[in-house]
Design goal:
The complex is a heterodimer of chains A (about 525) and B (about 325).
Chain A: H1 2-20, H2 70-84, H3 88-98, H4 101-116, H5 147-175, H6 180-183, H7 202-217, H8 222-238, H9 244-266, H10 277-289, H11 320-326, H12 337-350, H13 355-364, H14 372-385, H15 392-420, H16 425-428, H17 447-462, H18 467-483, H19 489-511
Helix pairs in contact in A: 3-8, 4-5, 4-14, 5-7, 5-9, 5-14, 5-15, 7-8, 7-9, 13-18, 14-15, 14-17, 15-17, 15-19, 17-18, 17-19, 18-19
Chain B: H1 10-13, H2 21-25, E1 47-59, E2 62-64, E3 67-69, E4 77-91, E5 94-107, E6 116-118, E7 120-133, E8 137-150, E9 169-180, E10 183-194, E11 197-198, E12 204-205, E13 209-210, E14 214-215, E15 219-230, E16 234-246, E17 264-275, E18 282-295, E19 301-312
Antiparallel strand pairs in B: 1-4, 1-19, 2-3, 4-5, 5-6, 5-7, 7-8, 8-9, 9-10, 10-15, 11-14, 12-13, 15-16, 16-17, 17-18, 18-19
Classes of the chains: A mainly alpha (about 525), B mainly beta (about 325).
């Protein structure tokens, strides 16, 4: 018996040793990146052309107190107090934010988009409830951050951050208050030391403008956002990069700039994009009158089309007349041989999908519960921007150019989708099974392709050495929708072309904003 | 000599392989667990038992977190599994068991594409350190160490259509068995370590955004209880099995399932095995079970059927075929 028990003990020991050896926790790609160390301070960014505001001094920022004033000395002591006794948690937050505010807010945005990207569940009677911005906590919570919603949200936050930072840079240069660590040698520069003036604090400008925008875009997350905003501001103080007065002035400026964007957002027609039963019926009738088979929802119960009036949202890079003129030629008639051939081609991809094609479909799926294709392109861009050592204002400018392109791509794409209301391949041929969820809106043209064409075009301008890589990615993203069985090749090709045209508008803007490449 | 009840003779040593105890246990995807690694039966030394098994699992309702629902865009999700299961007696106290399944999924409604392919190879070392013969009854203890390895690059990130979770696993299991006359009760407990997996995506949301293609897989604890009757000719048993992932997160309302979800299930089922009198060494099995309660899993009904044949590679080909246990007798 003794022998037996020792056998058991040994075997248990052996088995358990298998389990303790392996580390499971995942480290994200940007969890441990270094502090942002800008190659240039972009001191003249206060002169860059803004998106919405006409002047950098639209909102006044009062002159700061002299660095010799007793009030300022007290503020320096606050920094020293922080630096003398910082908890591990505070150090972690400081390190997190030191990687760059535009980057971190973009990551937070992507997280919120993924969190809220859930289509509402039907009521008992099979009717789908619609999220309401006036009652955001009620199920289905507001928003449902589907691709058009997300594209617009990314664009507004990025553009507002950009305008706010241009104004910030304007006042930094105007007042030229040195960084706390330049004024007092006992204040340490715990992130990167730069020659940038500290007033108003760019960290606080970002915190203020973003927190304010989020009230509109993600109203159920305001508490979380405010906490993050406060962390960002404290991180700047702890790092020795801002005093309390730099923070207060910055946050106020950020919140004011946000108001201009909120006013625009409230009038940009996005609030009406869901449409009404009458709008949905009209779309169906339009195609029936033309003798075409209209798009039908392939969900059960049938779900109303996603944001059919999003094509009427006011774009950032061009006017609404241009939206109409950029609309591509119609797809083939649903009763034509061309259409049938297109569907047969889709079937040829899905019948026996290769492992590589399944991987590509999944890589680019960006469907329910994800940060959507615009978020995917933001992630791609952010990871390249990290290597470029941009100043915060240039980070914001490039993100704004990218995200305005993708919002306008969403507008153009949605305009086209509901202009033609072309059925999905699986509607034309139910034999076509899909390798990803089938989106609940018409087929022509592919959203992924339009987003990707626009993103690759503007990114290729901003980071020219990666232009061909972006183009390859866009091609693959576009192809993934054909391989997944949810788009005809035509949707993908035309989508890429339309997207590239929109990207060109962003390039033109970039060439004329005074920021250089 | 009819006293020794813990049967280890040739016919009885065949794996009574109503596989699917495991099929429903693992939910949306169905990594299969062989009955042989769950039961209290050993192969005789140098005997190789080869089983072919077919399993079918289907569910219409599933638990999204704790909320039970159906989904008209899936209809009924069915999984078919074809499996080859060799079991070799290294000695009468140590067996090596393997299982190689081919899995195919299909949804009866909606547009989602079914998946198919060879899934994970699993292997178990099954050791019987204790066998106490107490006259009319026998008490035995089994210790098992197991591992599984995905054999193909199937995708785990297309649930519920994926054929598996693509995790490498290592398991330890303890089985206690008590047999009185022909009646037996068996209790088992298992701890399974699941290695992290890689998915095609570069970022995903669980309860937070994770910027990685690596997914942390929660480990699994499972337990089982069996009550049944064993004789020379047949075995019949009722089985209660429970599985709990240690960690993981719930599927949110109307979200897609994800490999690292919390996946819990309690199943109740029956298994039977019949040794064909006219073909020595061959047996047939059948079984079924149903998920009584679960979390982030389908409420599956699982059925299975198998055929097993023993090849005796021992040098001594005694008429009894039993060289594994001198102390026990054939009835």
């Amino acid at each position: 018996m003794k022998k037996i028990t020792s056998y058991i003990a040994l075997s248990v020991l052996f088995s358990s040793s298998l389990f303790v050896a392996c580390k499971k926790h995942i480290t994200g790609r940007t969890d441990d990146i270094n502090a942002l160390a800008p190659a240039s301070t972009d001191m003249n960014a206060g002169t860059w052309k803004m998106v919405l505001l006409t002047r950098p001094d639209t909102f006044a920022v009062a002159a700061p107190a002299a660095v010799t004033s007793s009030g300022y000395v007290g503020e320096l002591n606050e920094i020293k107090g922080f630096q003398a006794d910082m908890s591990e948690d505070q150090k972690k937050q400081m390190k997190y934010w030191s990687a760059g505010g535009v980057l971190r807010w973009n990551e937070i945005m992507r997280e919120l988009v993924a969190k809220h990207n859930l289509p509402p569940y039907q009521n008992e009677d099979g009717v789908y409830p619609i999220p309401s911005s006036t009652n955001p906590f009620n199920y289905p919570t507001f928003p449902f951050s589907n691709p058009p919603y997300a594209a617009r949200a990314y664009a507004y936050v990025s553009a507002a951050q950009y305008d706010a930072l241009v104004a910030c840079w304007y006042y930094k240069k105007l007042y030229n208050r040195p960084m706390p660590y330049k004024t007092d040698t006992n204040v340490k520069a715990l992130a990167t030391a730069t020659d940038l003036p500290s007033y108003p604090s760019e960290a606080a400008v970002m915190a203020g403008v973003t927190a304010e925008m989020m009230k509109l875009l993600f109203p159920t997350e305001i508490d979380v956002i405010n906490l993050k905003a406060q962390e960002q501001e404290n991180a700047a103080i702890m790092a020795g990069a801002a005093t309390r007065s730099d923070i207060i002035a910055g946050e106020a400026l950020g919140r004011q700039v946000a108001q201009a964007f909120i006013a625009r957002a409230k009038a940009d027609n996005a609030g009406k994009a869901v449409g009404t039963q009458a709008d949905w019926d009209a779309l169906e009738k339009m195609n029936l009158d033309k003798g075409e088979t209209p798009w039908y929802s392939l969900e059960s119960p049938k779900r109303p089309p996603m944001l059919p009036l999003f094509g009427k949202v006011k774009p950032f890079l061009f006017d609404s007349a241009t939206v109409v003129s950029l609309c591509p030629v119609p797809p083939p008639s649903t009763s034509s041989a061309d259409m049938k051939a297109d569907a047969d081609e889709v079937l040829s991809y899905t019948k026996n999908p290769t492992a590589e094609n399944i991987r590509i479909v999944q890589f680019w799926a960006d469907g329910v519960g994800t940060y959507t294709p615009p978020g995917h392109w933001d992630a791609i861009a952010a990871e390249d921007f990290i290597t470029k050592n941009y100043s915060e204002v240039r980070w914001a400018r490039n993100m704004a150019l990218l995200n305005m392109s993708m919002m306008d791509a969403a507008i153009e794409c949605w305009f086209t989708k509901y202009h033609y209301c072309n059925p999905r391949p699986s509607q034309v041929n139910p034999e076509i099974k899909t390798l990803t969820g089938i989106p609940n809106f018409p087929s022509y043209i592919s959203g992924h392709s339009t987003f990707s064409g626009a993103a690759a075009t503007i990114l290729g301008y901003l980071v020219p050495e990666r232009a061909s890589a972006y183009n390859d990615m866009a091609q693959e993203a576009s192809f993934s929708r054909l391989a997944g069985g949810i788009h005809y090749k035509r949707d993908c090709q035309v989508g890429l072309d339309v997207g590239a045209k929109i990207g060109q508008y962003a390039i033109t803007k970039a060439q004329n904003d005074g920021a250089g490449q | 000599m009819q006293t020794a009840k813990h049967v280890t003779m040739k016919f009885f040593t065949m794996p009574r392989n109503s596989v699917l105890a495991g099929l429903s246990l693992l939910l949306f995807s169905n990594p299969l667990q062989a009955q042989t690694d769950q039961d209290a039966i050993m192969m005789a030394k140098n005997n190789l038992c080869v089983g072919l098994m077919y399993g079918h699992s289907s569910w219409k309702n599933y638990w999204e977190g704790t909320y039970k629902r159906d989904n008209e865009n899936i209809g009924t999700l069915s999984t078919s599994m074809y499996s080859i299961m060799p079991n070799y007696g290294i000695s009468r106290r140590l067996n090596l068991l393997m299982n190689l399944p081919y899995v195919q999924t299909k949804a009866s409604a909606g547009t989602l594409h079914g998946m198919k392919g060879i899934q994970d190879l699993s292997a178990w070392l099954k050791w019987m350190p204790v066998e106490l013969d107490m006259g009319k009854s026998v008490f035995s203890v089994y210790g098992l160490a197991g591992a599984s390895l995905p054999l193909t690059n199937y995708t785990p990130d297309f649930l519920p259509m994926s054929i598996g979770l693509h995790s490498r696993t290592a398991s330890a299991r303890l089985i206690l068995d008590y047999q009185y006359s022909n009646w037996f009760v068996t209790a088992s407990g298992t701890y399974t370590y699941r290695g992290n997996i890689k998915i095609a995506r570069t970022a995903y949301y669980t309860t937070e955004m994770i910027l990685s293609n690596e997914v942390e897989m929660p480990n699994v604890a499972s337990y089982g209880a069996r009550l049944g009757y064993r004789s020379n000719r047949f075995i019949a048993e009722a089985v209660l099995m429970g599985m709990n992932t240690l960690g993981g997160f719930d599927i949110r309302k109307n979200d897609m399932p994800f490999p690292s979800n919390k996946m819990n299930a309690l199943t109740l089922g029956v298994n039977g095995k019949y040794n064909l009198p006219w073909v020595p060494g061959m047996s047939l099995t059948a079984g079924g079970n149903y998920v009584l309660h679960g979390r982030n899993v389908g409420q599956a009904l699982n059925i299975d059927a198998g055929i097993y044949y023993i090849l005796d590679f021992s040098k001594k080909k005694a008429a009894t075929g039993n060289n594994s246990s001198g102390k026990l007798n054939e009835k």
